[in-house]
Specification:
With 718 residues, this protein is of the alpha/beta class. Among the domains are: 181 residues, 3-Layer(aba) Sandwich (Rossmann fold), CATH 3.40.50.1700; 115 residues, Immunoglobulin-like, CATH 2.60.40. The protein is built from 21 helices and 26 strands. Bound molecules: alpha-D-glucopyranose. Alpha-D-glucopyranose binds next to loops.
Amino acid sequence: MNLRQLLNDMTLDEKKDQLIQLATLFYAGAETQGEITGPMEDMGITEEMIQNSGSVLGASGAKEVTNIQKVHLENNRLGIPLLMMADIVHGFKTIFPVPLAIGCSWDEKLAERSAEIAAKEAAVSGVHVTFAPMVDLVRDPRWGRVMETTGEDPYLNSVFAKAFVRGFQGNDLTNDKNKVAACVKHFAAYGAPEGGRDYNTVNMSERELRENYLPAYKAALDEGCEMVMTAFNTVDGVPATGNKKLMRDLLREEWGFDGVMISDWGAVKELIPHGVAGDESEAARKAINAGVDIEMMTACYVKNLKELVDSGAVKEELIDEAVLRILELKQKLGLFENPYRGADEQLEKEVIMSTEHREAAYELAAKSCVLLKNEEILPLQKDKKIALIGPFANNGDILGQWSWQGSKEDAVKIYDGIAQKAGADNVFMAQGSDIESATEDQFSEAVKVANDADVIVLALGEKSEMSGEAGSRSNICLPDVQLKLIEEMKKLNKPIVSVLINGRPLDLHGVYEESDGLLEAWFPGTEGGRAIADLLYGDVNPSGRLTMSFPYNVGQVPVYYNHYNTGRPKDAPDAQERYVSQYLDVPNEPLFPFGFGLSYTKYQYNDLTLSKDYLAADDEIKVSVKVKNVGSIKGEEVVQLYVRDLVGEVVRPLKELKAYQKIELNPGEEQEIFFTLTEEQLRYYHEDLSFESDAGKFNVFVGPNSQECLEQSFELRK
Ligand code: GLC
């Protein structure tokens, strides 16, 4: 298909209409034919605009997608097929753990596999593009969408961003019909809203933005990610969706990205409430000038671009560029040859929720859970009588947000998993409370059931809509009724194991001290109950490690491992008693730090060795360490390597993750692990935004988490 020719054949109306993305309910042939009422009706969408439109949001199901595309092609003058896009973030119908959990697996191969499977299930259902990976760096658990990202570290987020893009897109998007195009989001720094309140203002220096918040987007694009979605928030006072400096100058000019940019839902029109556009025409002008190609679910473009071109306020070539990028993506996906791409009702039946896919979801869930406490109560013995109590004891709401195609009914619940392990005769269940409410009867029933048991397993947490988009919480404790339930259980003087189902690091007051065992299961997905049971009974040895800090309380937020030292560090050798950077009521460190996670065995780190004590710019240092499993069962350990630049032109973090290896060790086995350090890994953004390293002293840390490390040092010579 000669796209230039096709572009030339298009009228200005057809071109500007190609830039809108509408939900399925606007399209004949969609199963969910909704009434075009309310805000949809106010959009002023005409039938002609729909016939000329370029892409659909939320289409899924081979039959529905085929119908929509078929009707569209009958009505579109030039036969330009629709792009079918949808949110497939951590699974399509087979739901994987939420990305914050996937990050805690520190297993990018399993992450890639999860995206591969999600892509396959989506592709046979007719989806062409997924709105993932979401790679926004986060430091504030009040923000609900922390569940959707892999955490607080730019290096780890970059590793996973690449893995997700590889899984979704593969390396032959045109011919591999089991793949979908990926769309990295939300550009940029959406994860840093003030107060942790969704959609709120983001204020940070360009240096901070480049140092911590941009790397993972760049990593996704370096891996070939086809699309970028703009963020709702402002960046330095300008909404991302109208931010020319961020999109045209940085993303397109500096980074050389020439793929499609899509706004987030309604974000073009939101330039008006943001206060940088007086009306939809101005919003359209700002967004197209800033580089947004597709306007999602508002109609500023389709209603105003023609007049803006006619008046000379917008150059037509900007519209041509946008249209061409969209046509190029359609061509790359082979849609001009086959507008139905991978949609296949027969294959849907064979591929979706297959045993193989469920096994992959189980494996990732088992590796994403993090053991936070174990006072010799875990693993459970199968002959013990278990009282399984709590709102998540038998609750399918373990898929987390962005699992809209998943089925809670199909999820393996915690009760299913434990009963399968210990035998139904050994498990006595009582709900004990709902998520945010409880009756006296529920409590008394829980006490009755618990009285007959050897061990109490509490299944507690947040319902899925308490995190995710628009799921910000100012209080990140468990709901009061669940804390009360724990109190009631504690009075029985029996061992308590708490399992948490949640989408964010929580304030664990009322949980941590009261539990003898504590397993963070996040939203573990379709196979969650089976994975949790295998972990509780020791058939799987926990290997998850936190990728986002757990604060003592919300007052500590933001608390993260790669922070700066300040001029009055509390732990300095000569620190004063009072006049140092500290709280009067809690420590400075989080309750659980980045990289933390327990195992049923123990690991010993010895002999951290550097191949030399200096590094020349074009050379490398070999770092080695010995790690031994000194316990009695096999386990997986995440060996983490951090560095510290002792003196920089700007302040430098106390630690920065630069590498890690997840290794398996049999009881008694010792392995020598090797890393390589180069000058490139020591570069950072200077005051003038130059990205380079400085000669000088560095510390190297290697250990099981960001707090307990062996230490060595070297000098960079330039
Ligand atoms: C939402 C989300 C975005 C999602 C889009 C389409 O508002 O912010 O992540 O991809 O709309 O559903």
